[in-house]
Write a structure and sequence with these properties.
With 143 residues, the chain is mainly α. The chain is 50% helix and 0% strand.
């Protein structure tokens, strides 16, 4: 790489008069980690901290599973709510069918005179003029 020519305005800073000192590297503030750790033997029991961590993790998992099953929004509550929803949907369907039947009967009674006559004969026991009613009973021992 070619060196730049220094400007002639500063003759005191020429590279020929003073040699350039090599740059010294800066020292780190902390020594670098080597990554070396202690290796435990394979047959050594786990430390007290590891055992406590395992127990805490197992307890936390048990609490989460219990909450998922029987909690406020757990599996049991969800299945009960689904069953209640199905029951209410069946009730709604039955009520809609009854409503449809009553609407049809009201329309028939409003528009069809034979329906009114039929209702009067069956529920009120009315007859037309000139008709005779015969009542049959099953009485035993009548003389």
């Amino acid at each position: 790489m070619p060196r730049r020519a220094q400007s002639s305005s500063s003759p005191a800073r020429s590279s020929a008069t003073r040699p350039r000192a090599p740059r010294q590297p800066t020292l780190p503030l902390r020594p670098a980690r080597t990554g070396a750790t202690k290796v435990r033997p394979a047959n050594a029991p786990p430390s007290l901290g590891q055992q406590a961590l395992r127990w805490v993790a197992a307890l936390g998992a048990a609490v989460l599973i219990a909450n998922a099953l029987i909690g406020e929004r757990g599996w049991l509550a969800t299945s009960r709510a689904r069953q209640a929803q199905r029951d209410l949907a069946n009730d709604i369907a039955q009520l809609q069918h009854q409503n449809w039947m009553l609407v049809n009967e009201a329309r028939r009674l409003r528009d069809d005179p034979t329906a009114i006559e039929e209702l009067a004969r069956s529920e009120l026991g009315l007859i037309r003029r000139g008709e005779r009613v015969f009542i049959f009973t099953d009485r035993s021992g009548v003389r």
